[in-house]
Amino acid sequence: MVRAAVLPAVGAPLEIAEIDLPDPGPGQVRIRLAAAGVCHSDLSLTNGTMRVPVPAVLGHEGAGTVVTVGEGVTHVSPGDPVILNWAPSCGTCHACTLGEVWLCANALNGAADVYAHRTSDGSDLHPGLNVAAFAEETVVSASCVLPLPDGIPLTDAALLGCAVLTGYGAIHHSAQVREGETVAVFGVGGVGLATLQSARIAGATTIIAVDVSPEKEELARAAGATDYVVASENTAREIRALTGKQGVDVAVECVGRAVTIRTAWESTRRGGRTTVVGIGGKDQQVTFNALELFHWGRTLSGCVYGNSDPAKDVPVLAEHVRAGRLDLGALVTERIGLDGIPGAFENMVAGKGGRALVVF
User: Are 303 and 279 a contacting pair, CB within 8 Å?
Assistant: First the structure.
């Protein structure tokens, strides 16, 4: 039996329960979790902003150690440290054949599977976003398992599975920030902190962090922010004042709210780029008029999983960690147990802290 955080229904509170995991079948791997990050996407799944089959064990940002492997699995062995990849590419859909693996049409097919059962009543459980990391152990498809590069602490490595891949990819793949450019990052949570560090790695000069909470300034500056702006109706004006009245070259929105997306777009210079990482609800409508789109010549683009290919990007990120350029531990402001996840959700809604990390 394994302890896990179960979402019984959309809108219902999480329940800490015992579950029964099967032995891994062909092409599957059983993993003992070392840690799992609490991501805003998990919150979005609980409240219905994003859909998930329920009952489910959530958690998609995790790292751990291989316990056993099923038939045909050769790239990892028992005892290996690994990272979970919640959105594995199939390699055959249209997006994958174009090399856009982050848009794989089949990446989340596994979320509809029954992967375990609740011990108390035998009821079916689904694996959240494929990997069900809010549990002491999990069984996943081998395609969801990436070997952990040498020299990376196993617990902190969980952050590579979502927050860091997303933040790094937003800067390096989506916005393609160049050395000497100016950047604004909206939202200083786990992904925002990873984005700030990545902007510094890219060689951005002015790096402006924006958040509703004044208390996050120290976190933001430690991650690489050169300036800090408390969000208000004057945010775009303040950012232009910090950049010679021009606006930043790149704005990265990590919140997922219409007003923040609009402000991020208004904060970029003429011809600038805005990348939207935050996941908003269908009710969040962003509007533009045709004349301003023409006049400003700005680019507005969505960004899924940092437009990253985890198999290629994780080794690159590991090298940044080993070289001291990327500090995974600095993203974590709270280390908790499974029963601390609801409190981490509450802090997220209240805009408190960076990443909460469930440590097993």
Answer: no
- pTM score of the predicted model: 0.96
Sign of CA dihedral 341, 347, 351, 352: negative
State the pLDDT at residue 161.
95
3-state DSSP of 116-147: EEECCCCCEEECCCCCCCCECEEEEEHHHEEE
61 strand-pairing partners: 37
Alpha helices in 234-309 (DSSP H): 235-241, 258-266, 290-296
pLDDT band, residue 310 (cuts 50/70/90) = very high
CA dist., res. 262 & res. 40, Å (int): 20
Percentage of the chain lying above the pLDDT 70 cut: 100
Picking from 14, 315, 57, the residue whose alpha carbon sits closest to that of residue 164 is 315
Structure tokens at 47: 């409240």
